Amino acid sequence: MRKGTLLLLFAIAVIPCFAQSSFNKYKIEWSTVEKSDKNSGYITDFFGSDSQGFYTLSSRAGSIYNYGAVGSNRLPFVKIDYYANNLKSVNSQSIDFRAMPEKRELEAMFQMRDQRFYLFSSYLNGERENVLETQLMRPKTLQMSSNQKEIHKLSFDGYRKSNSGSYGFAMSPDSSKLVVYYNLPYERAAEEQFGFKVFDQYMKLVWEKEITLPYTDELFQLRQIRVDKKGNLFVVGKVFRDKVRNRAQGKPNYDFIVIAYKENATVVEEYLIKLEDRFITELQTAVDEDENITCAGLYSDLGLGGIKGTFYATFDAESKKMINESYKDFDADFIVEGERRTDSKKRQIARGKEVLESYYLDEIIRRDDGGAVLVAEQYYSRVINSTNVRINVNRRYTKYYYNDIIVVSISPSGEIEWTGKINKNQSTINDVGIYSSYHLSIVGDELVFLFNDEPKNLEETDKGVRPFTGAGGMLNLVVFDAKGEKKKYPVYFQGPREPLTRPRISEQVGDQLLLVATYGRKQRIGRIDLTPPEDANE
Q1: Which pTM does this prediction carry?
Q2: What does the pLDDT read at residue 2?
């Protein structure tokens, strides 16, 4: 406690040195700290809410490092909790799927409009089938209803269980449609095969279709699945031309495509996404109310690595042609912002070298005014081997890096209005970065980014951004207004032995942001009031 107190005093002391910082301008509340056990595990997701509270999904402690997005992991044991808006637990339900005759595993918990569903799978080895089923969750008891509904059966007769196919899920922006997609058992050098089923908010089947793409498994990478409120489906893929490599003889060796299945899959359209003199390195898509496909991403010069700038374009639904193309190169000052040795990097940029590397895009976020926001984060990992010569001990570990964030604002007419950058340095060891990365909330016309930071970064120096290592830290909000003006708000200091916030699990509900913090067996939930403060610099 003494060390944590000293760090807190230090954090408060350096705040006046950072011109755009303000401490505790955003109101934050925490629940009491609870201890988890090996059965209840940790909260891994917020999956629904109503006017009185919200629902959480917890899994065993071992899953804290590997549970990701919906459909990414099967969980044999889970705990469902309902919390009131005062952050107190009202009800809890533990489910051991392995104890059931079918030995099920949870695939996902999700909410469609005002109903919540369990989605689980099981293997019927006698019939060699991978079965996906769903049951409605009873809101008061959190238990599964008695009405069990089969979604799909994947036959893996003639294949190993490890090659029994897999399921994935995507929901429409208005939560009225759910698409269940599945890979059929893998066959080497065979054409890529998918199946799709689109359901409405009551889990009634709208349409289904199995497709065979004219690309082999080895040369096709599924990148995104999108479904709109009409039930139209959009499949985004990366197609390699010969081998799975990004370049061949200095030129791009792949193309991005979008395949649209409209009007209950009776109409199939294919779009090739290609820039004439630029190399697309990262891409995201979205679909507007008129079924026009929006594409945005990052590009480099042909034959070079790294990132040079960002682009935005729209495919017209009727003509199938790309319209409203806009491009913006990142200038040298933007690229080196917040870094050390800026003069050296500027010389590299002047020689034509692209020094922004390893950036990955999240979703395109549609704005109410018809514009959009694009966000990219630098991420990479390294396996490090070290030797202590004195005691002759070898150590091997993985270091995870989550660094700067790039923000791109796009006007309703398709022009790139402004680009912004959040200087961030997060490097942790052997934890898959569970306390790293960020969460983005949208409040009115403001973008609000939440992330953990090293407290010393409250003071800007010429030493660059100091690394956050996961041993306590400052919980920060960085806010961009409609014009791209940026302000930084330290929200809460987390001591080295306190539960530490996991930003990627956070969930925005209206103007509130729900949080989860863990340390060892300690866990608590929190809430930040995202209502903008009246004066950031008081």
Answers
A1: 0.88
A2: 37
